[in-house]
Amino acid sequence: MSTLSRVIFDIDTTPPTVPLSVTATALSTSTIRSTWSASTDTGGSGLAGYRVFRSTTLAGTYTQIGTDLSTASLTFDDTSLSAGQQRFYKVLAFDGNANASALSAAANATTQSGSGTFDFYIGPN
What we know:
This protein is mostly beta strands. The protein is built from no helices and seven strands.
């Protein structure tokens, strides 16, 4: 007589929550910083990280920039820009079973123009 065993595997198909509170802030003529609030994952495999996407227009095509970020990373500095460039950013979260959230709402910023004024004083020698 044989014994039949039943094994049940719970496969995680639940994506993490969408990152919220996404913002973009120009730090300089070449850098925009994106920030967001942490996502959660209830599917069982655990939150694994984030991906940041960029576009030149709000309704444009968003492509991933940089590498996958860890769960501890809630900011990303885009340092590949030039003065006066506007960029739009979205973020998604992914879990340990490769489930990904939808993209977040977009945030945008324009790098600083770099056309600051300078005051000079030429006094007597």
